[in-house]
């Protein structure tokens, strides 16, 4: 049975971020940014019942001059959302940027927010239990308590590389930079949400510094590329011994105009921090990546406009949508039930894919095994008939 997917046009709404706050409630962030394009920056709440249904429920227009919501993370347990919305250019010049904002979807579909000041924010990630938030710009990452947005530790500053992503396990935070993965141990939390070092003390205590326990270098890729960079990282939601990364290769210096910029998905063993599996998924760099909540699927968006789904165990391709958008995908998310995948782009479109129950068993390797088995049976029948004929 063919996998169903439907494109939805959203006029004058370039999309840059997304998050599900329930199995059928999707929030999209987009707009014209800080430019004077006349396209307003908004958060929109949609109801998604299937790949064919995308119903606008509510929208919140941001203040004039503010940036479009460039990153966000949702916590379905409480229908809360946190996103990066950088303040106006005038506010940035004064050093004030209320960029990290918390919203909640109530029964009346009211969106309210709190804010915390930090530098330009492009990465927003929640821990699996919804208790911690990583908010990062290009060089700095703040670890905050969620939903209070209180700082948990001293912010992390990078001297080398640029931050592109972050991911949590129960006891570690992995920061994905262009040049390495930085593995930090998380401070122990008490039952009231404070760190262990603060427990039992009434006076204000200096924030702890996170311990860097491992620096993981970029993997060796097959071929003659000029280098590579990490683009994304995600822990397996049900197994912290498994981590997935996107690695985009850099063409060699003697490249031509049509030289491929190959993209790879890597499956890591986090006990040894070694690559267990690696698969090339395209000849252009990947722009976005996600892992389904049930841990069965990996999804990616490519700069060649492709959206694809892989089997999380084997990295075998399960679905490829060529030219899913007119521009490269900017955001990509599975819903909490793992039966819908949405991708969005600056071309003002959203594509929703229905994930059928049989998809996990539909990899090419499975089909190859079936075909080989049928061929063996066919050849055995032919051989038997020929033997009887003589």
From TrEMBL:
Record GO biological process: endoplasmic reticulum to Golgi vesicle-mediated transport; protein transport; regulation of COPII vesicle coating
Keywords, comma-separated and alphabetical: Endoplasmic reticulum, ER-Golgi transport, Membrane, Protein transport, Repeat, Transmembrane, Transmembrane helix, Transport, WD repeat
GO cellular component, one term: endoplasmic reticulum membrane
Designated name of the protein: Uncharacterized protein
Transmembrane segments annotated in the record for this chain: 364-383
Pfam family, one: WD40
Compartments in which it is found: Endoplasmic reticulum membrane
């Amino acid at each position: 049975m063919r996998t169903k997917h439907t494109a939805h046009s959203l006029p004058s709404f370039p999309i840059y971020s997304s998050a599900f706050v329930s199995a059928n409630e999707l929030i999209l962030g987009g707009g014209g940014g800080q430019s004077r394009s006349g396209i307003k920056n908004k958060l929109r709440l949609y109801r998604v019942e299937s790949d064919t249904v995308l119903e606008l429920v509510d929208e919140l227009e941001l203040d004039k001059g503010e940036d479009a919501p460039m990153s966000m993370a949702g916590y379905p347990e409480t229908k809360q959302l946190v996103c990066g919305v950088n303040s106006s250019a005038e506010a940035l010049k004064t050093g004030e940027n209320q960029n990290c904002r918390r919203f909640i979807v109530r029964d009346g579909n009211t969106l309210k927010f709190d804010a915390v000041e930090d530098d330009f924010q492009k990465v927003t990630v929640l821990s699996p239990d919804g208790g911690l938030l990583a908010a990062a710009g290009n060089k700095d990452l703040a670890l905050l308590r969620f939903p209070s947005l209180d700082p948990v530790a001293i912010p992390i500053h990078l001297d080398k590389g640029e931050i592109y992503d972050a991911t949590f396990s129960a006891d570690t935070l992995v920061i994905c930079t262009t040049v390495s993965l930085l593995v930090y141990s998380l401070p122990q939390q008490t039952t009231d949400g404070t760190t262990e070092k603060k427990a039992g003390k009434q006076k204000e205590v200096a924030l702890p510094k996170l311990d860097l326990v491992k620096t993981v270098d970029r993997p060796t890729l097959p071929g003659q590329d000029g280098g590579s960079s990490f683009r994304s990282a995600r822990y397996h939601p049900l197994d912290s011994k498994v981590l997935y990364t996107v690695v985009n290769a850099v063409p060699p210096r003697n490249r031509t105009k049509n030289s491929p910029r190959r993209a790879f998905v890597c499956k890591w063993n986090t006990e040894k921090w070694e690559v267990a599996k690696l698969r090339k998924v395209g000849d252009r760099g990947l722009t976005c990546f996600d892992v389904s909540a049930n841990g069965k699927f990996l999804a990616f968006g490519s700069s060649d406009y492709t959206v694809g789904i892989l089997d999380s165990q084997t990295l075998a391709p399960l679905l490829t949508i060529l030219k899913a958008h007119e521009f490269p995908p900017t955001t990509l998310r599975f819903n909490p039930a793992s039966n819908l995948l949405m991708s969005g782009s600056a071309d003002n479109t959203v594509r929703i894919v229905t994930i059928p129950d049989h998809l996990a068993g539909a990899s090419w390797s499975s089909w190859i095994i079936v075909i080989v088995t049928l061929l063996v049976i066919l050849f055995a029948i032919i051989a038997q008939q020929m033997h009887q004929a003589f």
